Amino acid sequence: MLALPAQELSGELPDPPEFAAQSEPIFVSISDILEYRALPEYHEPDWVTSKYVDAGTLPPVAERLPKEPMVYKVGNMPDGVGVYGDTMRHVIGGRPEGWNYIGGQSQGWGGIDIGLSECLTRTGPLFMVKAEELEPMPNLAKSWEWSEDGKELTMHLIEGAKWSDGDPFDSEDVMFYWNDNVMDANVSPLNGATPESFGVGTTLEAIDAYTIKWTFQEAFPTQYLYTMAYGTFCPGPSHLLKPQHPNYSDNTYEQYKNAFPPEYMNMPVMGAWVPVEYRPDDIIVMRRNPYYWKVDENGNQLPYLNEMHYRLSTWADRDVQAVAGSGDFSNLEQAESYVESLRRSAEDSAPARLQFGARTIGYALQPNMSGNGWGEPDARAQAVRELNRDLDFRKAISIGLDRQRLGDALVRGPFTAIYPGGLYAGTSFYDKESTVYYPYDLEAANALLDGLGLMDTDGNGVRNFPEGTAGGADVEITLLANSDYGTDTNLAEGVIAMMEPLGLRVIANFQQGNARDDMAASGQFDWSVVRQGAEMVSIVQNTAALAPTGPRIHTFHRAGSDGTLDLLPFEQELVDLVNSFVTTSDNEERAEIMKDYQRIFTENIYSIGLTQYPGALIINKRFANIPAGAPIFQFNWAEDNIIRERVFVPEDQQGGYELHPETLPGEPGGAGAV
Amino acid sequence: MLRFLVFRILGAIPLLFLLSVVTFAIIQAPPGDYADYIRSMLINQGGVRPDLAEIQAQAYREANGLNDPLVMQYFRWITGIVTRFDFGHSLYYNKPVGNVIAERLPPTIALALVCHLLASFLGIGLGIIAATRQYSWADTLLGIISFLGMTIPRFLLAIVILYVLVFRMGVNEIGNFNSAYWGGQPWGWGRFVDLVSHVWPVIFIATFGGLAYNMRVMRANLLDVLNSQYVETARAKGLPEGAVIMKHAVPNALHPLVAYQGVVLPYMLTGEIEVAIVFGLATVGPAIVGSMAVGDVFVTASFMLVLAATLIIGNIIADILLVALDPRIRLGGNKE
């Protein structure tokens, strides 16, 4: 049997179906969204002035704001300048460990830490930034410049900004974060910042109170600007944390980490809201930060919303409450519930609306490409891996899958699209011309498998390994999938069924989240159905994970026990492309590199794409200033994408949800709002 | 009697020990631990690169002894319980397991008790109605109800009710014991009403299952008793039918249900637990399932142990009741 030439198998990739409920972002420059400048006058809610400023317990708003606050431009605000008041009610499944984010404590996820912690740069709203101008948005670092050789980066921090308790924010906070948390191997900041996150050998020094200087080993490593956003460069309040750190006290590292438990109220933050109430297994309440350093063009101090709630429930409850209207915000990601949710939201009485973004949720079948003993495979598993490493085998699997049917089985309608693998259609670096697609062709798939010498020698309907391989046994392949989510198992079951006509026996290995992750991370799988990670969506974040650029970086090809990778020639090409991508600052050049990446990836069917579909933001109808096309996840989660500090509720729609109306956070460690 | 009791309690100790070994082994058997959960959250929620997340997970394992052999982890846990009544540290809640149990067990038991009392009174009442109107339309209707109650899985009923409430009726008072406002208020009439408006689906569903069982047992027993001679005698004496049933028949038909009370504790707990999981109420159920999913082993193991203890306590109570009711058992015990 002669091998089938690729051009006979590849075909035209159908465009994703049109989809009315999907909204497209309005693409702008970063300078259209915000700037830093002083305004002639500033405003705040009347009750803050009358109850606090007039009483002498709080300085006037102009004194609380930085010299040049961050100003959001009205032109980019979908509903314009907002009004003060109301609450956004979140529901989450996590639980807070405490408020010491940089000491490694989780705040419970679901957007809490995104709201509490501000970082040097910001990535969430980048979904609306023009691709050719893509770079992280300024935030605590209001501007930066590179030295001529590209190895030094000087950053200017916002001047005169204050923590929510009034303490100045300056380079001391930044240096405490860097020296005593990132560089201290005994501390693991929550999202895993280590010295390597910013490049081996990178140093950071403070020039003055508002200037810091980075020195890198490479020239123009612009990807680190993305690393300086959430969640790896969000400094904590050094005036509170430093006295608890083992370098400055008798505390152990454990005591440092746990010095600010969830019961500790009014933790100083740079974010828009401050935690003022915590009821275990019930709720976390946050009130507006009176020192928040961002304003709108009219000089109104942000945020518009006075209060944030986080009901401590379950992740599944989040969707239910958002649809019911007792929660305001959720990310709908399970395609199976789209039709019912859309139907409900289309009713006039529905409290929430659904906003679909780009199709950036994508599932792929990932073959274990390690032929080097990763995960200690037995003879059968090793034989499967050798097959996985054969392009004809991957082609056979790919064209043996009817992707249209796979997507339709999840949800009828225009939601799902055929996904050939590689970068998603709808993301910044996607290029259709560079995408190779092998359409469904059962006959050719069987021919390819015949060509590999996989014949059904015992007549039981299942192909056998050739004589001398795995004892000539039936070709049995285990398929790992996460049983926590219906979508994962539904797709996996579809794959299993579609492999049957090819004479391949695929055996389901459905495991709950933790067990699945453990098996996947230790290489104990032949195939795995996976919802792909952040790097496939944003490209510019975690870029290294796009190819096996290190021994333990990639999801389906890692080093064996001897610590080395056995890269195939095309994998080496992908690694080289990814490495050159991260050291290139020119956006046009980057786009070209990613075209090559996409072509080599899809031509070689590195992973077998299954389906891609959009997530839906479920948001209560009363909220205004929700940007069009805000994805539930692209550069960051929807909580960051929608720029919550400028979201508001029109006066006539405001509800009585505030639990501590007309109060502000009290002293750090105090009883709560006063 | 005292000797019987002492022997029963002493006999429970090795049983509990055995249960603790088995539960610990079972929950540790599948791959994955809490550090895997940390890694997943870092990758999925925080967008962390896999290798960096792995480093952090490994550091967590090291710091919290998750790399130690299972036997050592078990003995550390069990020694803490025996010597200091310390159930270990909850990795997920970042506080002592004892606190997690103490926070969640009282509302669980309270809910279970309410459901149990309602199921008993309503079940017995409806059982009486069904038995006294045998083969009437009321009996048939109650038969259908009890049939549904005994056959529909509670979690399924919970999901159906959740769906109807949210999607069809627009009710959104679900998922917590109290609304955000009332949860922070001191206890009073307003908070109580708010509580009821939140927990009624759980009470309804858990009651429904138990009620059906009680109704069937009560109906069958009462029918037996109503046909016995002394009831006929009471009727013959000219007692009104109501007095015959309530004074003579019902008390005698109640015996099996009274004896059943001893072992009902775990049954009513599981009923409440199943439903609370669907509704996400902060009781024992969601904590057990949640801790299993994230690999928070000491919470799962401790809850299992506590539930096993309630089962054993329930059995001991049942034995005591039986001893009190039936002297023959006591005599048998004395012979040993």
From TrEMBL, chain A:
Its main location: periplasm. CDD domains: PBP2_NikA_DppA_OppA_like_4 (cd08500). One of its GO terms (molecular function) is peptide transmembrane transporter activity. It comes from the Bacteria. It holds the Pfam family SBP_bac_5. It is found in: Periplasm. GO terms for biological process: peptide transport. Residues 135-535 form the Solute-binding protein family domain. Belongs to the bacterial solute-binding protein 5 family. This is Periplasmic alpha-galactoside-binding protein. It comes from Devosia chinhatensis.
UniProtKB/TrEMBL annotation, chain B:
It holds the Pfam family BPD_transp_1. GO terms for biological process: transmembrane transport. One of its GO terms (cellular component) is plasma membrane. It is a multi-pass membrane protein. The chain crosses the membrane at residues 109-129, 141-166, 195-213, 275-295, 301-325. Keywords: Cell membrane, Membrane, Transmembrane, Transmembrane helix, Transport. The keyword Membrane applies. It is found in: Cell membrane. Belongs to the binding-protein-dependent transport system permease family. This is ABC transporter permease.
